[in-house]
Amino acid sequence: MVPLDTVLHGLGERTTPAAFADLCDTLVWKFTDNGAELHDLAAVWASGDDPSRARAAALITAPPTPVPGDGTVFPPLPATPFPDVLLGLRDRMDLEDFTSTCDALLWTVSESEVLTTARTWLGSDDPHRIEAALAVNDGLLYATRSSLAEALTALTTRHPGYAPRAAQILTTYDDHTRPRTLHDATTGRWTPQALADLYLQPVPTIEHWLRTHSRRTD
To answer: How far apart, in whole angstroms, are the C-alpha atoms of residue 84 and residue 92?
Structure first.
């Protein structure tokens, strides 16, 4: 298991103090030990000689109380690999809690780090990492449908048991994107090319959606 010190250091490097406090408040409720591990580490940090970790400990134990300091949670150090951070979180919570925590991470750390890690895990043969990857952003790990479908096809070729989940993810993608596209097409003066650029869909797909919608409303 990735040490919690490593996990929290990685979060501290990537967030503001306020966001770090909010994440820690979430983790207290999501960790399988109800935050005991988190509070134990905070006690160690609070009693140490590192002012940065002492401030972080205060953010963990009493968020969101203002903490004196220079606005940083941790001093500059070599970056903690984000896969270690995400794996450490996954090891400490069930899949449902991990999913909701990843939703918070997408807003508080670099979205690209979260998605890049998930994409890498999706290409692995470790069920633990694959399940974690599919939990991130409901499995919507790519901006374009073609890229998402390609990655899911590669997954189901290696592991056919994931085929139902892959189909569900693609359906979710379509259900999210198609209504927004049709709304913009029918309420604005968007060309199919403009919609394709906006929603990262192939122009033929946009045109097919528009034709289908037109037949249904005629």
So the answer is: 13
